[in-house]
Write a structure and sequence with these properties.
This protein is 61% helix and 6% strand. It is mainly alpha-helical and 325 residues long.
């Protein structure tokens, strides 16, 4: 296909794909989490940044294509924090979330967990999530470390409490057969992780509910600060954080329950762990872009759903706000 059809004209700082549709957002976030950017050399990164600077300054050398510019921006955005200008550590980049997070998911879903192993894997998962959240935070305004620490403690506490509590309840359920008990235990990580994710969002961003977030008109001008828009933003983000672990933590137990009955795995039980790991990796790689594509980064809301002073301050009927990730 010609470049104009396959690749749109380059726009610095914008997405290559239409953010108004789910498919466009999905393609955008598949770029964001592309693990190939983890292997970009320092030299290639510097070349990409130089190319983007040349575009910005109008000194682009002849022959540079839109494809090259979009690829350069993809690499820079995957590695460099947009606010601090510093490199994000590899395990905590969005492109590293699946490869570095999969071993933790495998650990969460291991059968026959003890209380100690349950606590360890829930703690490790929330620690990894907290580091990813911090390294990809909005750094335009300084946020005290106490806020992140509060969210981290709340997430770890809720995850461990729910996981251990459900484990105790299941072990005390006398009407469960041993096989049923093992199967049910495999599903415990989901409610624990989902509730911890919501707890983390609310604790880390609770100030938005009391102070509000900026809402913008169709020209990008700030109309005002809205607490109702903040409520919408937190609800959408919380829903995303519940949907995200659903296929990751619910599909592998179901799939493994079927695969473990196959003669191959019954004859070679040592294959169970590598097969389990591949199932988790596949589920994780599918779930992450789908979950974060559910809502656009910049959501729209009708002025009738906002405070009266916001409606009175603009003639626009539809306003925009940044919901966060």
């Amino acid at each position: 296909m010609p470049e104009s059809t396959e690749c749109p004209p380059f726009r610095l700082g914008e997405s290559r794909f239409d953010q108004g549709s789910f498919y466009g957002r999905l393609r955008h976030f598949l770029d964001v989490i592309d693990p190939r950017t983890l292997f970009v050399s320092e030299k290639h990164l510097n070349e990409c940044m130089k190319l983007l600077d040349q575009f910005k300054n109008g000194t682009l050398p002849p022959g540079v294509t839109n494809v090259q510019l979009w690829e350069a921006q993809k690499i820079k955005q995957a590695i460099i924090h947009p606010d601090t200008g510093e490199k994000i550590p590899m395990p905590f980049r969005m492109s590293g979330f699946v490869p570095f997070g999969t071993p933790v998911v495998v650990g969460l879903l291991l059968p026959n967990q003890t209380f100690a192993s349950t606590i360890f894997w829930q703690w490790l998962n929330q620690s990894h999530n907290a580091c990813v959240n911090y390294c990809n935070r909005n750094a335009t305004k300084p946020t005290p470390m106490s806020t992140f620490f509060q969210g981290y403690l709340g997430a770890v506490s809720s995850a461990v409490t729910i996981a251990v509590g459900l484990n105790i309840l299941i072990k005390r359920a006398e009407h469960f057969s041993p096989a049923t008990r093992i199967l049910v235990q495999r599903f415990i990580p989901f409610p624990a992780v989902a509730s911890a994710n919501v707890c983390n969002v609310l604790l880390m961003r609770h100030t938005e509910l009391s102070e509000g977030i900026s809402v913008l008109d169709d020209k990008g001008n700030v109309v005002g600060t809205s607490k109702l828009a903040a409520r919408h933003a937190l609800m959408e983000t919380s829903l995303t954080r519940v949907v995200l672990p659903m296929p990751i933590l619910l599909l592998p137990p179901l799939i493994m329950a079927i695969l473990e009955r196959l003669p191959l795995l019954q004859k070679h039980p040592r294959l169970a762990l590598p097969v389990h790991s591949m199932v988790c990796l596949s589920a994780f790689g599918l779930a992450l872009p789908v979950a974060i594509s559910l809502f656009p980064q910049n959501s729209q809301i009708h002025v009738s759903e906002l405070e009266p002073e916001i409606s009175a301050a603009t003639e626009c009927k539809i306003l925009t706000y940044n919901k966060g990730l």
